[in-house]
Amino acid sequence: MGKPSKAVLGFMEQYKVDSDEIWEVHGSTWVVKHKALERVAAEVGIIWDKPELKVCDMAQGFAVVLISGRLKDRIEFSFGEASPKNNKNSYPLAMAEKRSKDRVILKLLAAHGSLYSESEADEFEQRQNPHVTRAEDILPATEYDQNGQPIDNIPEPDAEAIVKTRVVDQRPIFAELQNEIHATCSIDELSKWADENRNRLGKLSTEWRKMLRGVYAEHQTAIRQMDAQDNERLAS
Questions:
Q1: Is the pTM of this model over 0.85?
Q2: Domain co-membership, 192 together with 112
Q3: Bridge partners for 134 per DSSP
Q4: pLDDT of residue 37
Q5: What is the pLDDT of residues 34-71, one digit of tens each?
Q6: Contact 73, 40 (CB under 8 A)
Q7: Residue 127 is assigned to a structural domain of this protein
Q8: Could you give the angle at which helices 206-235 and 167-183 cross, rounded to 10 degrees?
Q9: Which contacts (CB < 8 Å, 24+ apart) does range 169-174 have?
């Protein structure tokens, strides 16, 4: 196991997280137990708003939960998604809630991107190591038009924006982009993000770009399902 970064060590010290509550996944990626995050959230006084169940299809194993939390004058929110592609257990709703809550805790503690919760560990391990699993094995495949541009997804970066980046440096870039995707709440907002940030993908390898587009497609599907359910409720 490698040595934790200063940010991870600082988090452990500040919030009294023991060494057996945190571990490394694929070099320089650190994961913290869900129970530890819940304990820290209670100790620092995070206040939770009522969770919103956006999608619940137990037959298909798909769930999306939106959770908001407050710490002093800061407010953060996050969607938690669970589907057969990113969840191995039989409780997608519980997993979606865990992922959403853990993301909000880490955001409020300014640790999201340096640390990940165990509720995302398996998914993160697969997605962050393209040498183990191909993007198309675990994420929706991206379709391309005749000009080689992704259809209904993040456009290709400009040629001059593509640079060779070390794997260890690609991880935080991927994590930041993934976090920003998950923070969008509408199709218009998501599409605008894709157009404005496409050149940032130039620092990712081709395989990791595929993975990020898979993350984008999953979140896009979740938003569309939420919109469809909202329309159904309004029509009823």
A1: no
A2: no
A3: none
A4: 95
A5: 999 999 999 999 999 988 988 888 888 888 999 999 99
A6: no
A7: no
A8: 10
A9: 169/203, 170/203, 170/204, 170/205, 170/208, 171/28, 171/29, 171/128, 172/113, 173/200, 173/203, 173/204, 174/127, 174/128, 174/204, 174/208, 174/211, 174/212
Same domain, 20 and 68: yes
* 107 shares its domain with 44: yes
Model confidence pLDDT, tens digit, residues 186-221 = 999 999 999 999 999 999 988 888 888 988 888 888
Distance CA 103, CA 187 (A): 21
| Domains identified in the chain, total number | 2
173 and 109 assigned to the same domain = no
Helix 121-128 with 167-183: angle, nearest 10 deg = 130
Judge whether residue 113 has pLDDT over 90.
Answer: no
What is the CA angle 208-149-220, rounded to 5?
65
Residue 221 is encoded by which pair of tokens?
């599907």
| pLDDT tens, residue by residue, 117-156 | 888 765 554 444 443 444 554 456 788 888 888 999 999 9
